[in-house]
């Protein structure tokens, strides 16, 4: 059992760097991602700790840089037909001047940048790494709200790993209703045949 499984993590990027470090003997380039829960202090929560679902994406190759990882972020937001803004920030894990804070509709939702050489040394990585970490809670909460309204489900029963049929009792007709409502959110047409492979909320 690793240290990660014996303690809570405050962000996803270290988990991604750990994967790269353990696979550094394999051929480059390597592109990896990790989606999971992180924990942050929040006095508004009963436990004073808030669980947040994050997506971490990293590119590891000889030419990995801010431009490469931004192109991937651009593509992701293009698929969702969402816009975003970026502001310059400082973060000790990233190279100064090569890191940004991503905002969507005024909300801070991601960090993006090139990992600092000192961090690469700590993980025994020789190739440059560019990455971003995205907060998925806003998207998930939107989908959850639609499902509660459409199907009168208990919000507590709707989790990222929830299966539509087995856990939530939704059938194919319900799935079509969900498609129709999600289209207005993501801003693009969703094909029913493509939805057949979707089994869980995270899918």
Explained architecture:
This protein has 203 residues and is of the alpha+beta class. Helices cover 32% and strands 27% of the residues. It has six helices and six strands; from the N terminus they run αββαβββαβααα. A hairpin with a 2-residue loop joins β4 (94-104) and β5 (107-115). It is globular.
Looking at how many chains there are and whether they match, the oligomeric state comes to: single chain
In the predicted model, the low-confidence regions spanning at least 5 consecutive residues are 1-6
Q: pLDDT average, as an integer? A: 82
Measured distance between first and last alpha carbons = 27 Å
- Broad structural category: alpha+beta
Percent of residues in β-strands: 25-35%
- Tell me the radius of gyration: 19 Å
Number of helices: 6
Percent helix: 25-40%
Shape: globular
Short account of what is shown:
This protein has 6 helices and 6 strands; from the N terminus they run H-E-E-H-E-E-E-H-E-H-H-H. With 203 residues, it is an alpha+beta fold.
List the helices and strands and how they pair.
Blueprint: H1 13-22, E1 30-41, E2 49-60, H2 66-80, E3 85-88, E4 94-104, E5 107-115, H3 117-122, E6 129-135, H4 137-151, H5 172-186, H6 192-195
Antiparallel strand pairs: 1-2, 2-6, 3-4, 4-5, 5-6
Helix pairs in contact: 4-5
